[in-house]
Design brief:
Shape: globular
Oligomer: single chain
Largest sheet: 9 strands, mixed
Number of strands: 32
Structural class: alpha/beta
Bound molecules: S-adenosylmethionine
Helix content: 25-40%
Radius of gyration: 26 Å
Number of helices: 19
């Protein structure tokens, strides 16, 4: 499957942008804003539906994001008519995303939307394939707006939608100009994903579209079109059965996430205050949950998240297989959060050079460049270009992550939990977690208990000490990072090979790290400092040579928690005995079809196994868990969460 994304080619007729691919306008030449509001917002009766919704979340799916005009109008209306703490999820697909400068030019036309458009422009993702989850804060309004933007073809997107939808905006150019999109299968798929009484609106009233909607089970309401147009289509899901199981659940029933009891009080316990725990707490607090973080040590980021400078980039395979899609999405998600959350003294997106240290890696990177076409964010560079970027002599070619960063994780953890809904309790060595009726209890070393509706275990390798989680296949890998005083060091970017080194922070150069397989020892060893220094001199000699060689080395050791396939373990916890019995046929054939969902331990979740890549994986996993708990659309491509 092609993973390439083609930017929209746009030409202008007066003030109206026209797609050169489809030879059609992005919005009405008369009054784009009014037509959008009429066709999609008013005809779907959004304002009155939100007011009558009892504070429930609302989700909208749009085919064809284009300039985001429909999204911005919806968001504006949401600010006026939604209820406190209500969440809007706006899912949109775009096969030919508009480039940044065209987007600015188009949105400049609507001064009344300028405050919102600026936020969209600031967060608008690079044009790389896949799922981009963007959060928009609403200043004095509590409810959050999340835009789930998928860059790719609609055929690829629909099967990944994991929650039924309240309203559809069909806006993919005129059916005559884009017949490929307006197929019968589109309407059949939409019908499967629409809630009872959910709506579909579209500007077209072409007879084949009306026929297709009727045959997919929708009831059509005769509605006058905008301006001079005689008619448009409003369709209502009146099918008694409502939405069926979306494909992704039907094909992988063990991924159906459990529903929380109706009467819960929005209280959560998070165990562990590293990057996984803090980002999970952040994601829940944003949704109005009261979160208590229970941390064994005296401060946040005391374990593997405690190094002074962590590196944010993504190790990607030569093709965008699900593992790479996940890390790419996680990398971009983290960068976006950092931009909005952390001041520049605590992180720097100075770029990361992933250098090819072997001939095999040179070939692999070449193939990566050809197959993934991610040049807008990851550029292949030769040794000379790498040297110019880094400001020191580099002998290897490499991949340059233009916005890759170093981050001071402790500061990020603190920023993530700065929320009135989050309370951290330090020096809580949780011995046991247990059920009390429908609630969860966490018992500390003195026998005190904390109570909540859900518990999310985020304490890395220590999670296995809880009886419910002893089956988890996590493994410890201890490692040591080194630090040396180097106030005059010249280095402009992060360098990665087998090891890494970051530009100095407060005159200190940080580099490493060692790997102690299956070790949980946090002892700092002089020998490992020396090994780290030797590796630095071997891999990055132009950095090593700038050190005097006599300065003492300091640093710290910590334990990374990894999984057998080096991807995180995040989500609800199944009952292992039932899981093995229910899905035992899979050991005979992986093609076996199942129809029952997995049995879960209600209210128990984990966010673990991030190894040394937690900066790129943990925040997106935190968001995933919060979305699962709140039964919201997944922030992650279905293929990733389906494994
Ligand atoms: N709603 C948009 C707005 O507010 O600016 C205008 C959408 S424009 C009329 C139609 C969009 O559908 C274009 O951006 C086009 O690239 C996109 N599109 C067309 N075919 C598609 C497909 N098969 N999959 C995804 N997007 C598609």
């Amino acid at each position: 499957k092609s993973t390439m994304i083609k930017q929209a080619q746009i030409h202008w007729s007066n003030n109206t942008p026209i797609s050169s691919e489809f030879d059609d306008v992005y919005f009405s030449t008369d009054n784009g804003l009014d037509e959008t509001r009429y066709v999609f917002l008013e005809s779907s009766q959004l304002a009155s539906r939100w007011q009558a919704s009892n504070g429930k979340n609302f989700s909208i799916c749009e085919t064809g994001f284009g300039s985001g005009l429909s999204f911005l109008c919806t968001w504006q209306l949401w600010l006026e008519h939604s209820q406190s703490e209500q969440q809007l999820h706006f899912l949109s697909v775009e096969k030919f995303p508009i480039g940044h400068s065209d987007l600015k030019k188009i949105l400049n036309q609507w001064p009344e939307l300028s405050e919102l458009s600026q936020q969209l422009i600031d967060q608008y993702p690079p044009l790389v394939p896949g799922w981009h989850t963007l959060h928009f804060n609403n200043l004095d309004h509590q409810g959050c707006v999340t835009l789930h933007l998928f860059f790719g073809d609609i055929d690829e997107w629909l099967p990944k939608i994991n929650r039924p939808v309240d309203a559809w905006f069909l806006d993919g150019f005129a059916p005559a100009k884009n017949p490929e999109m307006w197929q019968q299968t589109l309407f059949t798929d939409i019908a499967l994903l629409t809630k009872p009484l959910g709506t579909v609106t579209t500007f077209t009233a072409a007879s084949n579209i009306k026929r297709a909607l009727r045959s997919a089970g929708f009831t059509l309401k005769k509605t006058p079109g905008y301006g001079k147009k005689r008619e448009m289509v409003v369709a209502i899901q009146t099918h008694n059965n409502g939405p069926q199981a979306p494909y992704y659940v039907a094909n992988n029933p063990w991924h159906e996430t459990p529903k929380l009891k109706e009467s819960h009080s929005k209280k959560a316990i998070v165990i562990g205050a590293g990057i996984a725990g803090c980002s999970t707490a952040h994601a829940l607090a944003k949704r109005g949950w009261q979160v208590q973080i229970l941390e064994k040590e005296e401060s946040v980021a005391s374990g593997a998240s405690g190094n002074t400078q962590g590196v944010l980039y993504a190790k990607l395979a030569t093709e965008l297989i699900p593992h790479s899609q996940f890390y790419l999405a996680g990398y971009l998600y983290s960068l976006n959060l950092l931009k909005n959350q952390l001041s520049k003294e605590h992180w720097n997106n100075c770029g990361v050079l992933q250098l090819a240290m072997t001939e095999k890696e040179v070939k692999r990177q070449r193939s990566f460049e050809e197959k993934t076409q991610l040049q807008s964010i990851i550029q292949a560079v030769n040794a000379q270009q790498a040297s110019d970027i880094a400001g020191v002599d580099i002998k290897q070619s490499g991949l340059y992550f233009k916005n890759g960063a170093w981050v001071y994780p402790k500061a990020w953890c603190k920023a993530l939990i700065e929320n009135k809904h989050i309370k951290v309790h330090y020096q809580q060595d949780i011995q046991e977690i247990s059920n009390k009726g429908f609630n969860w209890l966490a018992h500390n070393q003195s026998g005190d208990t904390f109570e909540a509706d859900v518990v999310i275990v985020c304490n890395a390798q220590q999670a296995k000490s809880f009886s419910q989680l002893s089956f988890l296949p996590t493994k410890p890998i201890a490692g040591q990072v080194s630090q040396v005083n180097a106030p005059k060091m010249k280095l402009n970017t992060v360098l990665c090979g087998g090891s890494y080194v970051t530009p100095t922070l407060n005159g200190q150069l940080n580099f490493g790290a060692s790997y102690r397989l299956n070790s949980e020892s946090c002892q700092v060893l002089n020998k490992e400092h020396q090994d780290n220094l030797n590796t630095l001199n071997e891999e990055f000699p132009s950095v090593g040579i700038q050190l005097s060689g006599t300065e003492p080395l300091s640093g710290r050791a910590s334990v990374r928690c990894t999984s057998p396939d080096y991807t995180p373990i995040a989500g609800p916890i199944c009952d292992p005995q039932h899981f093995i019995t229910d899905f035992s046929a899979l050991t005979k054939s992986k093609k076996w079809k199942f129809y029952q969902s997995a049995q879960f331990i209600d209210g128990l979740y984990v966010n673990l196994g991030h190894g040394s890549r937690g900066l790129s994986s943990a925040p997106l996993c935190g968001e995933l868990i919060a979305a699962q708990i709140c039964q919201e659309p997944s922030p992650m491509p279905g293929a990733c969460s389906n494994g």
